[in-house]
Amino acid sequence: MNTNAFGPNNPSDDELLAGVRRHMTGVESLVPLSGAWEASGVRVGSPVRVGVRSRVGFAGLVPLVLVAALVVVAVGYGMGARVWTGAGSPARTPTTDWVTINCELVSATGQKPTAADVDLTVSILMSRLQSAGVEDYGISAGPASPIITVSIPATADVDSISALILRTGRLEFVWLPPADYGTADAAGRKAVPAPGASIDPALPAQFAGADLDPAKIQAVVDTNSGPESWKILFGFTAAKASEFETWSGAHVKEYFAIVVDGVAQSVPYIFSAITGGSGEISGNYTKAQATYLAAVLRAGPLPYPLVLQSILRPGETAAPSSPSPAMPEVATPTVRTPTDIPSSGRTLGNANAPVTLDVYVDFQCSACRSLAEDTQSQLIANYVRGGKVKIVYHDFVVIDQNTGGHDSEDAADAARIAADQGKFWAFSDYLWANQQNEQPGEFSRDMLIEIARMAGLDVAKFTTDLDAGKYLAEVRAESAAGQAAGITGTPTILVNGKVLDGSNAASSDYYATISAAIDRNRSGASPSATAQSTASAFPTPVASPFATDWPAASPGASR
Amino acid sequence: MEAVDETFEALYRQRYRDVYRYSLLMLRRPEDADDVTSEAFHRAYVAWQSGRGPSGQALPWLLLITRRLVIDKVRRRRLISWLPLGGLSPAREPAEQADTARTEFWLWFDRFARELPDRQREVLILRYQRDLDDEAIGEILGLSSSGVRSLVARACATLRGNPEIWR
């Protein structure tokens, strides 16, 4: 009767196992890159011949990559007792001389990069490193984790190599239309960009890195500019060479920019049709710059940008470390909102729950923090999880007025942006954990972006929205509406639309007060009596902002 | 690549993550996983040098050694703390679990461990290792291949009743 036995409600074993496998890949970020060889108790230098042959490992990726990378290590050090410590190993400190560079592949669309993207990235990085002459390195990535770890000896030029790794490497030849930029003979309305300038991303690229023949890209001394100056030679593939000749012939005297990752490297004008399809980028580079840029161009662009997470130098453990001193320290929440409860935007719990708790908070307010971290956990366990109560957060920004800052407002804006990405609760967990006694600047832009990263948001999108102040107007409007309705402080809780007395006081047993009010609502006791007796501090009835939950739905418990 | 494959060090480098991952999933504490992984490779090396290396594939052999150490560790841990396997989760310890992804993994794993009986859980952990076939898993667990398959089938039945684990 049922031709489709394995629908979503009747999954096949394969679907079940694939689901488990998908979750299980989360362990990869917890597994160290490699252990300390000496710590295994094995004396090094005793090669034992055996007949074991490697097989392609899980997901094919990691063992291949490790083996390939290790060949290089083995070539560099033979059977030497190099200790190779990965970033995920909290129990060990690197004892000798490796630096690990941890970075994350971040897709522009906010989707998680696929295993194939990670795979491609790792192979491009390997090719860049080899091509730049970096001989000792290791790269590791989980089969489905976008975290990529590169280990290099501390004696290497760590700054240049991390730049080499982190570059996206997108090469473009961008024509600067003479209507705007003029020609070699006549200046245009706009100045011709100098090398190092950003190029207007709206200008289309005529040719790209993929049109070049990698074998023809090389760094050489630029004899015109002295022995310390280097340039990069390149050549188009045979097919593109003639296209480039035709195009350049049609644009004599016009400028074009050779652009890497949006930045002009060199802005020549076309003297005459360029035949033979070869050219040079004379960017007045140092030797290292030219060598590494050539390596990047030969290897081709990464599928997505890599974002640096941390650089661990010898002696540093894998403890949360900041890539630069300017990066704010973000505390990890000790209390986290469970992720297995339905949530939507700023609402936590069953959307049809008979009782609604509207909670007005200011993210700088310490009483709100204890509400969120202590009382709320109990409420979640006893009411929300069972679908009896839903919690809805609202903004009531007050502390900014006292401090003269805008941290509360910015934090509220940021939390709403996080809600767009379905991460309101995770994000606010971090906000609470990072309160700093109402200090102006406690939720600076850098701090909020760092929190967004730690909370797993799409950081690029978050930053754009934050810089646009996407929800500031809504935050202010909600606060003003709350004020108009008689709310005077935070936190203020409304149980089915009725302000709960004592909820903005430092009540000793907050939970008891709230749960009693919830129980009154659920048991169908007259809510008006509650409101009468408790709402004295507020001019009731509470008006419009709470209208959605008004009147209190006392018989709603039977819904 | 051949030269690398022929030494125990190469095996160590190549399989370190596999042994560590298995230990971590079974013991759920990085310190314990570190201990067990080091000890397992030490024992493996001693056996290897005295000519008692793997007769077939190396990974099942390594995991068999590891598994004995894991069981030993769990037993000792039980005596000490009276906590069942999986009673401790690194997510709740003030460890280095600085990012959400890791915490989310442990939250998921908590649920996974809670719902699946020990052996069903272990067979799925071993199955995560794509290059272990039923026969190799049987070697590690002391079962026949068909025993492994029926254990997987039972694990699937458990999973079917707990959609939050596999969705």
Overall body shape of chain A: elongated
The CATH fourth-level homologous superfamily of the largest domain in chain A: Glutaredoxin
Broad structural category of chain B: mainly alpha
Which two chains share the most extensive interface? A-B, 69 and 67 residues
Tell me the CATH topology of the largest domain in chain A. Answer: Glutaredoxin
- How would you describe the shape of chain B? globular
List low-confidence stretches of chain A: 1-7, 38-96, 318-326, 525-559
Biggest beta sheet summary of chain B:
none
Structural class label of chain A? alpha+beta
Strand content of chain B: under 5%
Beta-strand percentage range of chain A: 15-25%
Regions with little confidence, pLDDT below 50 for 5+ residues of chain B: 1-5, 81-97
Q: What report would you give on this structure?
A:
The complex is a heterodimer of chains A (559) and B (167). In chain A, helix 12 (445-454) runs antiparallel to helix 13. In chain A, strands 12-13-15-14-16-17 form a six-stranded mixed sheet. In chain A, strands 2-3-1-11 form a four-stranded antiparallel sheet. A four-stranded antiparallel sheet of chain A has the order 5-4-8-9. The model of chain A is unreliable at 1-7, 38-96, 318-326 and 525-559 (pLDDT under 50). Chain A has three domains: 31-166, no CATH class; 171-301, Gyrase A, domain 2 (2-Layer Sandwich), CATH 3.30.1360; 343-522, 3-Layer(aba) Sandwich (Glutaredoxin), CATH 3.40.30. Chain A contains 16 helices and 17 strands. Chain A is 33% helix and 16% strand. Chain A is of the alpha+beta class and 559 residues long. Chain A is elongated, with a radius of gyration of 30 Å. Chain B has 167 residues and is mainly alpha-helical. In chain B, helix 3 (30-49) crosses helix 4 and helix 7 (134-141) crosses helix 8. The longest helix of chain B is centred in the middle third of the chain and has 24 residues, at 58-81. Chain B starts with a helix and ends with a helix. At the A-B interface, helix 1 and helix 2 of A face helix 1, helix 2, helix 3, helix 5 and helix 6 of B.
